[in-house]
Structure prediction request, 374 residues.
Amino acid sequence: MKAVAATRLGWLAAVLLAQHGVAATPPITLRFEPSREHPLAIQLIAEARDASVWPADSVTTLNRAANPWFALWLGEANPGTASLAGTYSLVGAQLRFRPSLPLLPGQTYTARLERPGLSLWAEHRTPTPVPAAAPKLLAIYPTSDRLPANHLKFYLTFSEPMESGVFLQYCRLVDACGRAVEAPFRETELWSADGRRLTLWFHPGRQKTGVNLNVEFGPVLTEGGDYRLVIDGRWPSAKGAPLGNDVTKPFRAISALHEQLSAKSWQVYPPVVGTVGPLRVVFPQPLDWATLQRQLHVTSAAGPVSGAITVERGEQEWRFVPGKPWSRGPHELRVGSAIEDHAGNSLARPFEVNLQQRALPAVAPEQGLPFVVR
Prediction:
């Protein structure tokens, strides 16, 4: 009678024995070989000492067979049940089977090799995935709870990349009565390169006075109105874990802003020589958080000064801490003309311009605000 040997240790290899426990052919070993990058993408390998053990037409026969003599099943390899689809190959003395699809997590698979007078089987348990930790919505900018009625952008920063292409399902704006504001957002999805920051626009066509959407649907916000931006806790990360709880930002719409920005009223507070104390710049009104990160930089007679930027006090204060102590002498804060306020007005131009009434003067890409370190 036939003897069948199997083990669940290590690679769960099974060694083929012939009648009465005496090897009639060189031993054959079954093993599962997962991919290093994708543990659920595996190869099933039957390895002999000599390739002559395998019939010359093994690969052709197995690839064509409805019921192959070497195959893999989900669960038990019961007669009459379909084995997994895949492809066979012969590499040296290794007969290999590669499933067409990755295996399912947390499941048991059974491999069988059946030849006249021979029987071999082995089991493989796929790993159960560890549930992904819930992502976090770290901040919503602007941080102020008073925004102009023609406000344009929010920035949502997350602890990890979120599922993309679905933000309109998970972001909504409601008024003081809890009613949803109809179609407030621009449908273009704008993520940072690392997938952790979303720029959420109110539709410019509704926020810009006199254009079609503004006339037809009205502005998104009404001055004096109270609103809540709601980020749905069901929004999943790229790994599939949801935020868990809704995150809400309440705010009031105040007077609209229509004037072009000017740096003349900015207050610059120089640091002390020999320290790494911050250079502080205070603005008369909040500015756009993202452009504050990239439109301001510091130079000295020796060239650009490297350091770290923070934005404080509801986006009304910019701070710069140098990488090494301040040197004595003149310095300059270089300000890019693309810096904006919450309504999209920049140093280069106001957000709303009637070109039929006036032409915009040319503006330099940057302007300098000098200061002296003493």
In short: Residues 137-254 form a domain with the Immunoglobulin-like fold (CATH 2.60.40.1220). Residues 10 and 357 are 81 Å apart (CA to CA). The chain has three domains: 19-125, 137-254, 267-373. Helices lie at 58-64, 167-170, 204-207, 212-217, 289-294.
